[in-house]
């Protein structure tokens, strides 16, 4: 029979060690609720069309906030105005690294230092920067601001471009706080009470989206026109079956029970260039390997591909 004192001591040590890891991955408040660190923003009066340097959008394949910015970049056909640079996740050191040196930097944290930006928590993506000679100017690392900056870029496209409209800020905050952050609040909850609170808020918000889709006429959340609400929501819901329902314990309801949301998701997935922002193999590898506190044995579950999931919905 195993020594009960050894088991108890091991459990307590593991919980202490898990807490230290979580403090690095996902800071929380005193009640164990995940709290996302604030990022760097630029003056709201800034006009990106007056920027003199070459603009770059730095992103990672697996990050949903990066996908927000990629969606606007692809839908608006901004490749000639804004160059995209993909970074890769350094799982061993818990940071983003470049595939080749950029401005003498191999790590994202070095680029932040080169731009003389104090990092409050850690060097994060997405990152919108401009390079003018040897100067690195960080415009923003907040995806909510980046998508508006990208959407404001004036272009003369060869193809018809879908307009992305603004919408009710209160509803955007609901999606951002209760759904985008909500799945992380479930996965990174430090205790049962924090987890149940996050799950309740998450599914209440998803139900609000479902009800709005039933009420409004048209393909999108606010009717006939694509808005920031659609851009906000898609990166979270497209990862649902592969990541959040499994790894983050978002299990209170099956997403398939929300019929209007499933219809909406499929329509959005089939928009021009949207598939180019989806990297399901990278998602699985980075989430299940990088988030060690949530998946210590780092096993990647056997799952359907994203294409198979979407094909079943159609």
From TrEMBL:
At which residues is there a site annotated Lowers pKa of active site Cys?
244, 287
At the top level, the lineage of the source is Bacteria
Q: Does the keyword Protease apply?
A: no
Q: Which residues form the active site?
A: 63 (nucleophile), 184 (proton donor/acceptor)
| Residues engaged in binding glutathione | 96, 142-143
Q: Name one GO cellular component term.
A: cytoplasm
InterPro entries for this protein: Glutathione-S-Trfase_C-like, Glutathione-S-Trfase_C_sf, GST_Omega-like_C, GST_Omega/GSH
Q: Where is the GST C-terminal domain?
A: 154-287
**Keywords, comma-separated and alphabetical:** Transferase
Pfam families of this UniProt entry?
GST_C_2
Any one Gene Ontology MF annotation carried by this entry is: glutathione transferase activity
Record bears the keyword Transferase: yes
**What CDD domains does the database record attribute to this sequence?**
GST_C_Omega_like
Spell out the PANTHER family in the cross-references: GLUTATHIONE S-TRANSFERASE OMEGA-LIKE 1-RELATED, GLUTATHIONYL-HYDROQUINONE REDUCTASE
Protein name per UniProt? Glutathione S-transferase
């Amino acid at each position: 029979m195993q020594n009960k004192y050894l088991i108890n001591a091991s459990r307590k040590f593991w919980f202490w060690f898990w807490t230290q890891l979580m403090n690095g991955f996902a800071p929380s408040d005193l009640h164990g609720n995940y709290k996302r660190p604030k990022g760097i923003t630029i003056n709201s009066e800034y006009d990106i069309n007056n920027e003199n340097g070459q603009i770059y959008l730095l992103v990672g394949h697996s990050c949903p906030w990066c996908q927000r910015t990629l969606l606007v970049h692809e839908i608006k056909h901004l490749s000639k105005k804004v160059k995209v640079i993909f970074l890769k996740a350094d799982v061993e050191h818990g940071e983003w690294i470049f595939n080749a040196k950029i401005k003498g930097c191999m790590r994202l944290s070095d680029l932040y230092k080169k731009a003389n930006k104090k990092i409050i928590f850690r060097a994060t993506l997405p990152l919108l920067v401009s390079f003018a000679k040897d100067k690195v100017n960080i415009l923003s690392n907040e995806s909510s601001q980046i998508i508006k900056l990208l959407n404001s870029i004036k272009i003369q496209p060869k193809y018809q471009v879908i307009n992305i409209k603004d919408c009710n800020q209160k509803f955007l905050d609901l999606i951002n706080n209760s759904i985008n952050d909500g799945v992380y609040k479930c996965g990174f909850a430090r205790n049962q009470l924090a987890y149940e609170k996050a799950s309740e808020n998450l599914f209440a918000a998803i139900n609000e989206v479902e009800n709005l889709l039933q009420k409004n006429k048209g393909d999108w959340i606010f009717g006939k026109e694509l808005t920031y609400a659609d851009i906000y929501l898609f990166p979270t819901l497209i990862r649902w079956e592969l990541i959040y329902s499994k790894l983050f314990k978002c299990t209170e309801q099956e997403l398939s029970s929300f019929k209007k949301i499933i219809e909406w998701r499929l329509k959005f997935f089939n928009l021009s260039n949207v598939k180019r922002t989806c990297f399901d193999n990278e998602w699985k590898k980075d989430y299940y390997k990088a988030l060690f506190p949530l998946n210590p044995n780092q096993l990647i579950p056997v799952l359907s591909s994203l294409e198979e999931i979407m094909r079943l919905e159609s």
